[in-house]
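Page 47, continued from p. 46.
Same chain as before, 481 aa.
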Amino acid sequence: MAARFAFDCAGATTPLPHFWEHTVGSDHALMALRADWRAQLARSHRELGFRHVRFHGLLDDDVGTLTCQMDRLLYSFFNADSIVDFLLSIGMRPFVELSFMPRTLSSGGTTVFKYEGNVTPPKDLDAWCALIERLVGHWLERYGVREVRRWYFEVWNEPNLPAFWTGTQQQYFEFYKRTAVALKGLDARLRVGGPATAANAWIREFVQYCRHANAPLDFVSTHHYPTDAFGAPGDDTVTQLAKSRRSVLREQAEAVRAQAGDLPVCYTEWSSSSNPRDTLHDEPFAAAFAVKTILEAAGLVDAYSWWTFSDIFEENYFPSVPFHGGFGLLNLHGIAKPVYRAFELLHYVGDRMLPRTGEHDTVDAWAIPGERALTVIVTNFALPRHPMNDESVEIVLRRCAAAGSASLRRIDSRHANAKAAWQRLREPEYPTAAQLTRLAQASLLRAEGIAVERARGETTVRVRVPPRGVAAIDLARRDVR
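Result:
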């Protein structure tokens, strides 16, 4: 029996601001000096509309922001400026994560990742605040107050995890307050927020602390993945996902939205799993997951930052295999994964959604009017080990002014799937230029015709969607030529 969804084209619409384009994630700051990183970010901005980028480690020793020689503090903002200059040159801005601790200010030697970001609290909060004031004060002079007011400043990364913060919750809260006060002392309209926690943690306590301690707070930030806290220690990613829930991220966003009150909610990391070597990241699974999760989050989230835009990423080691399960929307060579094409589909839809009726166990559908077309997006998604089939889907549009012709674009095992093409090439670790051209062609979204029926004031379209597939149906508007 077909999954059936009906939409009222003349009904009251709900807002769909493109919150998923607000920010996108990246590896640590030093990677932003690479030419290939820059080329991929410029493309992602141009084709997907991302407006800010967030990365770890801006204050790490390898960026050179602060060091000490012969008991003398030496500040250098040359590399930080190079990164910001580039972002502004392509029309993007930084979502500044203030991390990690410069070694000369650190209270211990605990580090994280291959690049050894120091995760200890400062031994001297005054010296830390002096660094923040000096760096951001420099940016205010270099770029102007009107520009820097459009940035976001987030204090630290995942302080609820011992791997990222060796202090206590109370130490982080005090650290946050001193940092936020230092920023506001430079300009009261700079935007600062936190707690940048993993797994939606500390939100209620943090908001209450800021209110009671009179700590500046312009937005609430946190992270979540569907693998968070599911399964037992040592479980593989598929097992974790199988024990998760199909709409768990929407459920969590609802809870955070309630705890944040009237503050903007910024998820500064999310993805289909927190595993940096998850094969599903490279497959249509991630595309269907991303579309469903984003469209379910409308009205709950103000910024939703996919982790990450590129596989140019070295938290553990720098890989060479073209499809190794990395977080990126683009692989090492700039080949678009299916999830990149999902963001491409969403970039061109409008900013309102039509009311919908209809439900199905694995199929969801949304109708989004745009300037030139009405787009219906369908996903057939379930978590691993859930029984799935090809599904026949019937879309009924009532009181619809769309034209009789329509086109269909697909993301699934046979469409916009570069990894499948790479597998057919016998998985070369170092593809030739000719092979890369074939992979790029295999990654493209391609439009095909689809039949449209019009009868008794209704427009009906039928499409078959395979497991973990995405289908986008574009119906041209009659009032646009």
